[in-house]
Design goal:
This protein has nine helices and 14 strands. It is an alpha/beta fold.
Length: about 325
Amino acid sequence: MNLDAINWDSLERLRATFLAGTAGAADYWQSESDLASYDATFAQRIGWKWDYVLLELQRRGWSPPHGELLDWGCGSGIACRAFLDLFGVDSILELHLVDRSLLAVQFTARRAREKYPKLSVLAGTSERPATLLISHVLTELNQTQTEELVNLAASATTVIWVEPGTYEVSYTLVAIREKLRGLFNVVAPCTHQTRCGLLAAGNARHWCHHFASPPSGIFQDTGWSRFANLTGIDLRDLPLSFLVLDKRPVPALPAGAARVIGHPRIYKPHALLLGCDESGVRERKLTKRALPAEFKRLKKECDPLQVWVSEGDEIVSVTILA
């Protein structure tokens, strides 16, 4: 991080706005400096979440449709840049940018034109986007605005929606999933097309959240250390909720494909994993005795996409989804 390029006063004011829950009340971008400082810090953390989601889509064998890309609520443009960095510009006819802030649209458009000089970049919406990107907006929208955004999403071929991994936002995405499920195929995070298992009785204490990882180099970076001290943010903690929908057929997953929600709970003789599959959401046990190698691996990392064979609520076989 280039410390000289950061306006720390801007970051402190933006952080206070986010924490107070008043970000949806009015445009909080006051200058180019605001956007540049945000883009180098807060937006990078959002970008790592987008990398997590987009790499999973690539891993699943998914690729974007050909057509217009719409970044709605673009902010500093981290979502569309993450998308274009991974999938390239060949499948994109035009990049459309929408934000309540003209400053934000201008900032994102300039960054996009600099990075992808052959890409056509337009301010304003697309009536039927091939791909709609939505990032970290639900905490700033009221119910009417959210419903209008869902109606826009219904016009797209593909929707990729990334949000903070909070309980409230997670269940808003679940509600959106259920409303749009008849129009779209569900690509991720789910491994199935049925009703969300979190809506079943007894699951109200759980929510659909996952964890991305930041680049290891930030922990030796003095700029990121200062950012963490200023904001009180744990740099290791990148919780997110997300939803990916597609009107096209989606790559098939093998029988028994499951997704781990949140972090496993590790105990001395076993681990408990909250898993979601076609049968619903429930906690399953993986014992050190039955699967010693997998139990050891869980202590270091947990791949969220797995294929399980279970006997009752005990996992007796694990295959990482290739």
